[in-house]
Amino acid sequence: MNTKATQNVFAHLAGQDDNLGDSALRVAYLEALRGPDRHLHVFLGTPTTDYEAGFPHAADITYYVHRAEWVKAEKASTRPVHAFNAGEINPQPGVFPVPRRAAECARVLRAGGALIVAGIGVKDVSKLGPVAFDASFRGATVFSWRDQGSRDAAGFGEFAPDWAYSLGTDVGAWSPRSARDLIAVTMRFDRPWPGDQWLSDMRALGSATGRKIVTLAQVARDAPRAVRLAEALGGEYLAAASMKHDELDAHVRSVYSRSLAVVSDRAHGLIMGATEGAFPLGSGSDPQKIGRLLTAAGLGGLVGRYEEFAEFADRLPDHLDSLAPAIAAARADVAHLTRTIRAAMDAVA
């Protein structure tokens, strides 16, 4: 039995500095780990002030600048909880995680603590064949992928929707459909340009729904593409006043709350839009990942490659009523995962 009054939870929550989705999913994960008589020890990697601004500051959270200090504090703790980073993983052939990280996982389990691995997903499940998962990783106290495809390819663990589904406006407080005057578009900078037919199909969607097309960037590197898309679509680029993640989060959610749909090849553009009541239309040059993450929440019906956009955009009206129930169910699934995690932590406290 841990005789300390406070349980120490060590969470590694590093992400891309300019990617709002990376902080959003990890903030939701952080909230799942908090609770009475727990103290969170959080390492954010080497974040910019923009990324760090997305995270809460409270008496029950200590942030570490240096990873060595975070590891030292974990080693000194009795029966610690180790929360493995959530989000995308891209394992290379060989053993995952790397030896240093695998040793951390094993050490926590040997010490009678809890290892939480929740909300991770494989970038490309077709490349998982030559990957072997370390025994301590497979033996985590709680192990939950963020999509069924990742779980099935790995062959172990459970799955639940991405943490970011738990954030956003309550379904009952969404703006009514009649008040949603926009179609929001946010696309990756590092994928092929969609092309003339896609642009024509996108304009047709705006015309058919009577909505204005706007573009935005919730990843800073996507901003030049958002500007170019606005020009090509005859729409408007809605720039954020700040790229600090707390302020950027408020900006993109305000746009999505006015949008009938969000069109994107960014997983968290689609997820965050959906949590504000904008139906997610996944469109990309390689939509396998966004399809898996939306399917986990029952929203994978309108996802496809650029050349398929017109076909599934035509079916948007038939899917609009399914959004609220899907988000409510996804949030219930994430809440169940949260209860599972907290029960596991209670068991070693």
Structure description:
- This protein has 349 residues and is α/β, with parallel strands linked by helices.
- It has two domains: 7-166 and 330-348, Rossmann fold (3-Layer(aba) Sandwich), CATH 3.40.50; 171-328, Rossmann fold (3-Layer(aba) Sandwich), CATH 3.40.50.2000.
- The protein has helices at residues 20-33, 49-52, 67-75, 99-110, 135-138, 148-154, 196-209, 223-233, 245-256, 267-275, 288-295, 309-314, 316-319, 323-348, and strands at residues 7-12, 38-43, 61-64, 81-84, 87-89, 94-96, 114-122, 131-133, 142-145, 158-159, 182-186, 212-215, 236-237, 259-264, 279-284, 303-305.
- Strands 1, 2, 3, 4, 5, 7, 9 and 10 form an eight-stranded parallel sheet that branches. Strands 13-12-11-14-15-16 form a six-stranded parallel sheet, sandwiched between helices.
- Helix 1 crosses helix 10 (267-275).
What structural class do the secondary elements suggest?
alpha/beta
Number of distinct beta strands? 16
> Number of domains in the coordinates?
2
**Cα separation of the termini:** 7 Å
Percentage of residues assigned to helices: 40-55%
Q: What's the CATH C level of the largest domain?
A: Alpha Beta
Radius of gyration: 21 Å
> In percent terms, what proportion of residues is strand?
15-25%
Keywords:
20% strand, alpha/beta, Rossmann fold
How would the blueprint of this fold be written?
Layout (H helix, E strand, L loop, with lengths): L6 E6 L7 H14 L4 E6 L5 H4 L8 E4 L2 H9 L5 E4 L2 E3 L4 E3 L2 H12 L3 E9 L8 E3 L1 H4 L3 E4 L2 H7 L3 E2 L22 E5 L9 H14 L2 E4 L7 H11 L2 E2 L7 H12 L2 E6 L2 H9 L3 E6 L3 H8 L7 E3 L3 H6 L1 H4 L3 H26 L1
Parallel strand pairs: 1-2, 1-4, 2-3, 4-7, 5-7, 6-8, 7-9, 9-10, 11-12, 11-14, 12-13, 14-15, 15-16
Helix pairs in contact: 1-10
